[in-house]
Design goal:
By secondary structure, the chain is α/β, with parallel strands linked by helices. It has six helices and twelve strands. The chain has one domain: Spore Coat Polysaccharide Biosynthesis Protein SpsA, Chain A (Alpha-Beta Complex), CATH 3.90.550.
């Protein structure tokens, strides 16, 4: 079973989880179970099943719950809530589920703090990285203020990583770092993007709810 899992804890607007899961339903032909790790299960629509955080933490550290041995069985496909799905990416998902690596993911857009691993889009077998969750349970107090957060801590702990963007370079592009231009210290966002791009990562600022003026965001996020 393929499980699409998002994480929506604390104050992050639940509409982000709802839009991502609904958009995935609209574009994918895969049979998927929808889950959300959240402390607000009453805000989820019926088709998304809630998972109470196994270890509630701060901000991005809640992603470590994805590695819990109590996660649903099968393949875990995780996506950050601020990713906008432009089109079907079933081919890339199947490639990741068939790969033997402990982790399939994308490369970080800027190699944040020297770490290539990005936790923005991940696919792995449930339980495959349970040791990371168990280690976090023991070390959380020492690392929860670590610069760079979860992916800088997690990357070096992964035994084997397959970077899907090295095979499919147009799978996901970061809006700010890959597609925008900085002109006179002002971020200039493109009005259109290459039609081969399947996912737009709006990590950082601005977020999708602020980008209704961009047709590729409006049509694939605001109108969903």
């Amino acid at each position: 079973m393929l499980n699409l899992v998002t994480v929506c804890v604390d104050a992050y607007p639940m509409i982000y989880a709802m839009k991502l899961h609904r958009r995935f339903q609209n574009v994918s032909n895969l049979k998927v179970a929808h889950w959300c790790i959240t402390d607000r299960p009453d805000e989820l629509p019926d088709f998304i099943q809630p998972i109470e955080p196994f270890k509630k933490s701060k901000g991005w550290w809640n992603k470590i719950n994805l590695y819990s041995p109590k996660m649903p069985e099968g393949d875990i496909l995780y996506m950050d809530l601020d990713i906008v799905i432009l089109k079907n990416f079933d081919q890339e998902i199947i490639k990741m589920t068939e790969h033997a690596a402990d982790m399939c993911c994308v490369s970080d857009a800027i190699g944040w703090m020297g770490e290539k691993f990005s936790s923005s889009l991940m696919c792995f077998k449930s339980g495959a990285n349970a040791g990371i969750f168990k280690r976090f349970e023991k070390e959380e107090a020492m690392i929860n203020n670590l610069a760079g957060g979860d992916q800088v801590w997690t990357g070096p702990l992964l035994q084997s990583i397959y970077y899907i963007d090295e095979t499919f370079p147009n799978l996901k592009k970061n809006l700010k770092f890959h597609l925008a231009k900085n002109i006179n210290n002002e971020l200039c966002l493109p009005i259109s993007v290459c039609d081969q791009i399947k996912l737009i990562d709006c990590g950082g600022q601005p977020k999708p709810h602020q980008l209704e003026g961009l047709p590729y965001i409006k049509n694939n996020w605001h109108l969903v």
